[in-house]
Write a structure and sequence with these properties.
The complex is a heterodimer. Chain A is of the alpha+beta class. Chain A has 13 helices and 18 strands. The chains are: A alpha+beta, B alpha/beta.
Chain lengths: 394, 292
């Protein structure tokens, strides 16, 4: 789960990491109260869950109240396009007003869990404000990685290694240590999967400050972190994905025209791959999971049909634990709710498959039933392209 | 022989009195697995499925000689259950639970490295040595005893591959899911090493997916250390970067962990990679015929 920069900075403050004075506003009228807190000059920053905000005009420096007012009016309500949002951009409903810092230099510091080592690792680079992934490829020698073993926890030498690499001066040492300790505490106190400060700056008076703040949280930890769940902003997420997540469905919207419903993540990915292999494009990834009930299948089918780019639906269920008769009932129920505007190909194999197929065929629905995966995918691809009958293809 | 699990394994079920644990324990017993006990803290002294229930794993080890455990407990309690089993001296721990926080797995992984315990999972369907024993949630009837090893990061996709093998008359020595999480216990390389050493395995199906570098490590191991043929499939060629494809570990991050990268590495190391998963069984049959 992602949070906004202003929310991350509030958590930073609580963890003792120095951040500039700032306040989030969602209407231009709140600007003066915010500036009373931050002073001038200030920075007006669009709050969206996407990087590259500066490039899209979502971050502006203002040295007077009228300039700040104009910036806030321009940015609030804009459709912000950044390299990460896609061409349609993202609606900006909140901005962060923040005191501008006079900085000497910018660094990069992050803490994440490295999956190969199975350890939390600090990543530090004396060049900040850059794309760290690009730098890691071009200049790996500039990047220092400091793993922290869970049996040891964060020790003073970890902080010294990082400080040495970033050339932290003696007078800034305490400040810097607060940053590192705060990051480690945030990760472990809230199940954060990424704590990233880019840039982390050294100010002109030798202080260290988190100018930006990015926090991602481990979705698996949210069950024990109600304080983080409360920060979720569903406006930042794809509406169909929000709807799916409410029903414990794993749904990711893609760009194609074939809606897929599959049980199991691996099989769902593989089904998408086969669609592509036969010249089609999947409209989504959707794993209905193991303990699938009729109700969940019904909701999943609703979500597929709610995507107006879907030209054909492919259901691929390999039932081990999943009872295919329940899947069949869910499909029939969903179609009864909303009708069927696109062709549907159904492959049901496994537990109670005879019963499952009988339910589909007796429902009178205009559905292509297949037992072989290959044939099912070919049929769906042909139907999405406007073919009359999947069987005539291939 | 098979690997890790066979008819002599003495299995305890952690969470046997729960709905899921009870359901699958029953299926495992039906299959012939030697389920010797269950563990549910607070319910010791009862019997369930005609097996004794204990309060702790240590008791199940002491009194019933359990050497293998399969864990069906909620995700937020699963790390603790794994640690308890390892501490009790269990040799093989299979953790079915999906959704364990990654920081819990950091602690588990490093504690296990100081023990002899082998962990399979989490977020796995478990493992089965057909005709001998099953410690998992996979449908038993698609499996058949035979000489092909199967190792995978996925569940249902593995069932599909196993089904193909069985329909072509190729049984399995052991089929094992290593789990779909970013941090898992036993990895591809460890399982491949065991299959290479197993006199009852002739060839291996490896099913990988996007995310991480396990497939690349496996490719190097196969080229350098294995004499037995391997047929591979990598799921997620069409997955977009930065999105978690169901499994917590199935994500392309920072441009790394793509299917294309993995497929290239496997092929460069001489491993047969199929493009379409429906061809896994058929390709394995061909490969075995070439060898003979």
């Amino acid at each position: 789960m992602k949070v906004h920069e202003y929310q991350a900075k509030e958590l930073f403050r609580q963890a003792g990491i120095p951040v500039p004075a700032g306040r989030m506003i969602d209407a231009p009228e709140q600007l003066e109260a915010a500036i009373a807190q931050t002073g001038l000059p200030c920075v007006v920053k669009a709050q969206v869950h996407a990087g590259g905000r500066g490039k899209g005009g979502g971050i502006r420096l203002a040295d007077s109240l009228p300039a700040a007012r104009k910036a806030a009016r321009d940015i609030l309500g804009m459709q912000l396009v950044t390299p990460q949002t896609g061409p349609e951009g993202r609606h900006v409903g909140r901005v962060l007003i923040e005191a501008a810092a006079s900085l000497q230099r910018e660094c990069y510091l992050a803490l994440l869990v490295d999956r190969e080592q199975g350890l939390p690792v600090f990543v530090a680079c004396a060049q900040g404000g850059v794309e760290i992934e690009e730098l890691a490829v071009k200049h790996p020698e500039q990047i220092l990685k400091v793993p922290v073993h869970p049996a040891v926890g964060l020790s003073a030498y970890h902080i010294r290694r990082l400080a040495l690499h970033l050339d932290v001066k003696t007078e800034g040492g305490k400040d810097f240590a607060r940053v590192v300790r705060g990051m480690y505490a945030l990760m472990h106190g809230h199940d954060a999967s990424l704590v990233e400060i880019n840039p982390l700056v050294e100010t002109e008076n030798g202080k260290w400050l988190a100018l930006d703040a990015k926090l991602n949280f481990d979705d698996n930890g949210l069950g024990r972190r109600p304080e983080i769940v409360a920060l979720r902003d569903e406006d930042e997420e794809e509406p169909l994905e929000v709807r799916a997540s409410r029903h414990d469905l794993n749904y990711i919207r893609l760009d194609g025209s074939i809606g897929c419903m599959v049980n199991g993540a691996g099989l769902a990915m593989a089904t998408m791959d086969i669609i592509k292999l036969y010249g089609g494009e999947p409209a989504n990834f959707l794993d209905v999971g193991g303990g699938t009930s009729e109700e969940r299948v019904r909701e999943a089918f609703h979500i597929l049909l709610a995507d107006d780019r879907v030209r054909a639906v492919l259901v691929n269920i390999f039932g081990g634990i999943v009872r295919t008769d329940r899947v069949a009932r869910g499909i029939v129920a969903a179609v009864a709710d909303v009708g069927l505007k696109v062709p549907v190909v159904v492959r049901l194999v496994g537990t109670n498959e005879v019963e499952g197929r009988r339910i589909i065929s007796e429902s009178g629905l205009d559905v292509v039933a297949e037992t072989e995966l290959d044939a099912a995918v070919r049929a769906a691809v042909a139907l999405a392209k406007g073919g009359e009958n999947g069987h005539s293809v291939g | 022989m098979a690997i890790l699990l066979d008819r002599s394994s003495r299995v305890v079920v952690q969470g046997i009195t729960g709905k899921e644990g009870g359901f699958h324990a029953e299926r495992m017993i039906e299959y012939g697995t030697r389920v010797v006990a269950g563990v549910t803290p607070g319910k010791g002294g009862r019997r369930h499925l005609d097996r004794p229930v204990f309060d702790s794993v240590a008791q199940a080890v002491d009194r019933e000689g359990a050497d293998t455990t399969i864990i069906f407990v909620p995700a937020l309690a699963a790390a603790d259950a794994i640690l308890e089993a390892a501490d009790a001296g269990i040799g093989l721990v299979i953790c079915i639970a999906e959704g364990i926080p990654i920081l819990d797995m950091v602690r588990v992984k490093h504690f296990l490295s100081s023990t002899e315990t082998v962990l399979v999972g989490p977020n796995t369907p478990g493992l089965i040595s057909p005709g001998q024993a099953k410690a998992g949630i996979m449908p038993a009837k698609i499996h058949a005893p035979g000489r092909v090893g199967v190792v995978s990061r996925s569940g249902t996709l593995t069932y599909a591959a196993v089904n193909q093998l069985t329909e072509l008359g190729l049984g399995q020595s052991t089929a094992i899911g290593i789990g779909g999480d970013p941090i898992v216990g036993t990895g591809f390389v460890d399982v491949l090493r065991r299959f290479e050493a197993d006199s009852e395995t002739d060839a291996v199906v490896l099913i990988g997916e996007i995310g991480g570098t396990q497939e690349e490590e496996a490719a190097r191991f196969v080229q350098e250390k294995m004499s037995k043929p391997v047929v591979a499939f990598i799921a997620g060629r069409t997955a977009p970067p930065g999105r978690r494809m169901g499994h917590a570990g199935a994500i392309i991050s920072g441009g790394r962990g793509t299917a294309a990268e993995k497929i290239r590495e496997l092929r460069e190391r001489g491993i047969r990679v199929v493009e379409n998963p429906v061809e896994i069984g058929y390709t394995m049959k061909q490969v075995l015929e070439e060898v003979q």
